[in-house]
Amino acid sequence: MQFTRGLLIDLSPLKISPAFARLWVGSALAGIGGQLTVVTVMLHVFELTDSTFAVSMIAVAGLIPMILAGLYGGMLADAFDRRRLALLAATVAFVATALLAALTWMHLENIWWLYGLSMIIAATNSVGVATRTAIVPRLIPLEHLTAASALNGVAFGMTVMVGPAVAGMLVALTGFGWTYTIDIILMLSLFLGLWTLPALRPEGTIVRPGLASLVDGWHFLRRAGNIRMQYLMDITAMTFGQPLTLFPALGTVLLGGGAFTTGILTAAVAVGTVASSLFSGRLVHYRWHGLGISRAVQAYGLTIALFGAVLVIGLFLPPASERTPHIALIVAACVALALSGAADNISSIYRNTMMQAAVPDTMRGRLQGIFVIVVAGGPRVGALYAGALATVTSLWFPPLLGGFLVIGIAAMLARLSPRFRTYDALSPEA
Fold first, then answer.
1. Which residues form the Major facilitator superfamily (MFS) profile domain (predicted)?
2. Which string of DSSP letters, residue by residue, matches 152-181?
3. pLDDT, tens digit, for every residue of 237-265?
4. What pLDDT, in 10s, does the model give residues 291-312?
C-alpha cells in the first residue's frame, strides 16, 4: 500500500473514480441540508419549550429507531443491491423532511411532530450512511481508502460548518420554514449521485436478512478485536465529550448571541474538521492507525475540557443577552471546539479506513450498520448526559467533567489492548 507523503490532501480518489466523485459531491450537498434541519429542529424545540432537556431528548428519541434501522439496514446492504437500498433510504428521508416543512409552513407543527419526524430521518439516515459507506471500497482501490476517508472528512466538515451557520442565520432572519425547504432542495443532489452508480450487489456468500444474518455478523465482531476497540473509543468520546445539545442554551443564557451563537459554535467544530482534512497528506502516510485513534481521542477529550474551562470564565462576567454577547468568550470557545473537530476527524479517518480495509465485503454492510450506530448513537447518549447533567448542575460542568473522563477512559482502553496499539494499515486485520 502506498501512502501520500505530501502535506496537502490527496485528491486522487476523485480523479480515478468518477462514480465516487459524484457520490461525494451529492453526499456533501445533501449533508449540508441535513445539518440545516438538525440545527433548526433544535432551535424549533427550544423555542416551543424553553428547555435544554427537551432539546437533548430529540437525540434520545431517535436512538432506538436508529439502532434498529442500522442493524437491519446493514443486513439488507449485505444481501441486496446497495445502490437501490441507498436510493430507498434517501427517498424516505426526503418525504419526512418535506412533511416537516409543510407542517411548519401551515403552522401545524408541535413538539411531537418534531420528535417523530426527527426519529424517521435519523433511522433512514442510519441505513443510508451505512450503505453508502459500504459502497466506497467497491469504487476506490484499497491503497486509496485512507485518502478517500480524508476527503469524506472534508465533506463532513463542510456540511457541519456551512449547515449550522446558515441555519442560525435563516432561523433568525426568516423563521423555520425556509430552512427545512432548502434542505429538501439540497437533498436532490444525493439522488443524482446514487442514480448514476452501477448495480452493487455484495460479493461473497450472501446471508438473507434475519436472525441468521445478525448472528453471523455478531460472531465476526466477537473475533474482530480491533474493530470492537475502535467502537469503544468512539463511544467514550461521544458519550462524555459531545456538548452540542448545550449550544442553544449557551447562546441564550451564558455566552449570548442567540441563534447566531448556536450556529457559530456548531460550525467551529467543522472548521477544525475541514482544516485537518485539507492538511491530511502526512496523516494518510501514518500506518499505525490504532495508536493514531487512541491519541486522537485523548486529544479530543483535552479540547472538550478546555471548552468547559472557557465556559467557567463566563460565570464571572456580566450576564449576556442576544444583543450583548460575550465576543471574547465566544471566540475562545470556538477555538477549543475547532481543535476538538480536528482531533475527532483524525480519529475518524483512521477508524473509517480500518473498517473498510479490515472487514470483508460480505460483512461490510452489517459492520457499517453497527459503525453508524456507534458514530451516531454515541452523540445521542452524550446529548442525554450533557442535557441531564446541565439541568441539575450548570452548563459548564458536563464538558469539563466529560473531557477528563474521555482522556482517562481512552488511555485505559489503549493500555488494555496492545494488539490495537500495534495495528498496521499495511497489514489490516479486524
1. 1-426
2. HHHHHHHHHHHHHHHHHHHHHHT-HHHHHH
3. 989 998 888 888 887 778 888 777 887 88
4. 999 999 999 999 999 999 998 8
